[in-house]
Amino acid sequence: MNSINIVCHNVYPIFDPSIAWGIGGMETRAALLARGLARSGRWNVRVIVNDFGQPQRVKLEGIEFDIYQPLHRHASDNVNPRFARRKWFPALNLDRRDIPLIWQIPLLFVFRMLPGWLCSIFWRRRKADVTCCFGNNGTSAQVIADCRRAGLATVLCIASDDDLAADYQPNDESLNDYRTPKWMAHYALENADHVFVQTERQMQLLESRFNRQGDLIRNPVDISANAPAQWPSRSERDVILWIGRSDTFHKRPLLLVELAKRCPDLPFLMIMNKTHVDIFETVLANRPPNLTIVERVPHREIWDYYRRARVFVSTSAYEGFPNTFLQCAVAGVPVTSLSVDPEQILAKYGCGLLADGCMERLEQHVRALWSNADLADQQARAFHNYALTHHGLEAQVERFESLLQKVIGNPLRDPVRPWWRQPRRRFVRRTEP
Questions:
Q1: Same domain, 202 and 260
Q2: pTM of this structure
């Protein structure tokens, strides 16, 4: 059997419903692919996740879950806030939590002196045929650097188009919208052994901006040909649905607030994760009476909201191929989008209505899909057929497995050096000796 490490820090709550946590499209995608590989019986699947209070190692649905760098992270969580309050010495609580400082402070000092040598130990002890990182972020850059040092193959799985931003440069210390240093995002793109993308557009961006070839795996969804027979009637659909984060640069919920004010006669429902507290509170303060806001929905209950939706609205500035769109295709919800049109499914394939950035046109589309049953059904069925043909779960898992076999069969981009010949620093670019 082949073995794979999948790195997606916030995916664990999908498998453990007792944990309340916001789940995004990247986590849903990672969970579907991990489950698909595990169910095939041909893979040992380990998923590296954040610490949500679960045991350090636990097995669910045939998948092993392991907490990322637990020793270092637990020490950092205890030591760093204390030094932040004191310039030279850590603040003390005068209780038993102070005792671990005796070993945690020296541990962190050694890690900071020898990060390259020590951080890679985690991956040497969890050696797999391939390690897949979901999303271009700081953690992915760390994992790629550590696995490269350990001589382990890595894959970077692109999420949104922002993972391929044009301003990612090797020496840029500034932060992107998700607080990742831009040099780290560039490092991940430059140093991963392989890059998997979601769309043709991402393939083009990867080549034109970073001179790399990618492999396409479309965002999967569990969809069946007889799904339309199970769609609720229009009389059971009573809301216009929006799902996303509270931010101003990606999902842009304030634009949904504006849309709801333009349509005071229509009921809107917003499921919004509180990622930016100030934006969340601004939305709450400005919402009109016809807009209902739900902060968080357990992953297993999200389909109840899709079955209630008569229209789905996207106000995103960019996407990859949004998981919310695919869930609409399964549930028979017609889609209208302010700006994004992944793979031209709206403009070219008639899977929804595109407003081309115009709020007035978005309002017209919402009203048309709300009131015109024939138009709504036509759009929903077109999208269902498209998703069934291009995004079926079984086909995408098979492609994922095929590409992983290709990765395993190819030689590493860098020769493996013995540890004593490797530099002390953690991030070494391919252009460096």
A1: no
A2: 0.91
